[in-house]
Amino acid sequence: MLTKRIIPCLDIKDGRTVKGVNFVELRDAGDAVEQGAIYAQQGADELVFLDITATVEARKTLVDLVRNVAREINIPFTVGGGISSVQDVSALLNAGADKISINSSAVRRPELIDELALQFGSQCVVVAIDTKDYGQRNMVHTHGGRTPTEIVTEAWAYEAQERGAGEILLTSMDHDGVKTGFASALTAKISRKLNIPVIASGGAGTMEHFYDVFTAGAADAALAASIFHFKEIPIPSLKNYLKGRGIPMRTEL
Predict the structure, then answer these.
(1) Domains (range + CATH), the chain
(2) Is 45 one of the annotated active-site residues of the chain?
(3) CB of 106 within 8 A of CB of 82?
(4) What is the pLDDT of residue 58?
């Protein structure tokens, strides 16, 4: 069985790491470069860096900050925010990113997924999906969760795969920051339908939540922010806990 991945996420606004609840009420959570280095040292499997207001503010991801983070880490590094072209991706990869994450730009022009997969390989392309539950359906949102669409989440995840995405980063807006657990049922529904890895995001509050999303949720990786930023759950302790419960992890007990 493939090892499961633990991925800290750095949400960036104005060059600083921030964290909110349900995509709002942002508070400062520290220096991105320092945190990236610490997470790499602690045994994080990957790092995700999302410039969360780049699309809303119609600007590009902070390439210099990406370069500074990349210098300090030795683990795979995914960058997202304001990416809308092959040229944007080239700049980020040259700055040290290993993968890129697209969301709003892919919804606006789905052919972008095909173009990036063809140019850089599917392994480089992560399609991020911010989703909200409306009872009967889960619907895709763009622009950092600010803009609802009429796109059904499960259908969009499948289309992203068929267009060449190498991974799906699935964030439940309903669960984001509230620490009551991941959206395991939705994650499992999508993960079992796709042939590519699904990263679960939104809702981590306890070590057991990670166990649940890896088992009941069938997730390939789990992403979290505040519990790591504010030192509520140390990554080494989390990975040892999961390994002790039979989840394959890249770690030593």
Answers:
(1) 5-244 (3.20.20.70)
(2) no
(3) no
(4) 45
Can you give the pLDDT at residue 154? 97
Catalytic residue among 11, 45, 88, 220: 11
User: How much helix, strand and coil, in percent to the nearest 5, is found in the chain?
Assistant: 35, 30, 35
> What is residue 59's predicted lDDT score, i.e. its pLDDT?
47
pTM: 0.91
Neighbours of 134 (CB within 10 A): 10
Burial group, residue 130, by CB count within 10 angstroms (0-12, 13-18, 19+): buried
Instruction: State which residues of the chain have pLDDT below 50.
Output: 19-27, 29, 55-59, 253
Q: Report residue 205: phi and psi, to 5°.
A: -135, -25
- Catalytic-role residue among 45, 51, 88, 130: 130
11 a catalytic residue: yes
